[in-house]
Amino acid sequence: MGVLLLVRHGQASFGADDYDVLSETGWEQGRVLGRWLAKEGPDPVSVVHGGMRRHRETWEAIAEGAGWLPGLPGAPQAAVDEDWAEFDHLAVLARYAEATGATVDHTTDRRAFQEQFEVSTAHWTEAGPDGGYPEPYDAFVGRARAALDAAAARPGPTLVVTSGGVIAALAALLVVPDPAAVGPVWARFNTVIANTSVTRVIVGATGARLLTFNEHPHLPRPLVTYR
Hints:
Layout: E1 2-8, H1 24-40, E2 46-49, H2 53-66, E3 78-80, H3 89-100, H4 110-127, H5 137-152, E4 158-162, H6 164-175, H7 182-190, E5 198-204, E6 207-215
Parallel strand pairs: 1-4, 2-3, 2-4
Antiparallel strand pairs: 1-5, 5-6
Helix pairs in contact: 1-2, 3-4, 5-6, 6-7
């Protein structure tokens, strides 16, 4: 039986010109997780991360904290799998505004942005393949499942660094037998995933099963963030 550790990236740079960069808090969250993994285990045999900068930087912070530095004996080397990328939230916001006539304000107020985000993604999950979204929700979920299957085929334990939306999609798939009900469950999972939290999936003869969701005991309270 294999185990996958799905890690959400560290805090990105909300409100900055480039969101896809870890904040100083995000870097520290990654280092703290690395130290915790080195102490508590399991030591990963395989490492995979998405192609986004925040994924790569989170892995670099984890490796620094754990002492898994490139070139050292036994240090795991990371592979890149673009299927672990997050959905394009800006495209979802824009398409929602186009489809409904709503005004989307790219505000730096976190609470206001969260409200816009939840309304827009709810529309996205319900719109179906003909809803005009560049990546329909069903295609996004299928991509996430393909990434999980590819990671499960690697020697384990396997550490994956990805994004909250991807982890939420997989968690919903693994606990909800009715595909039509995955969207609302995804939304509930997606709003509570902490940065650098760990979600464990076990893979055995009967397939993949969700073991834990959103573990973050490694984070002291000041480092717990969700955006």
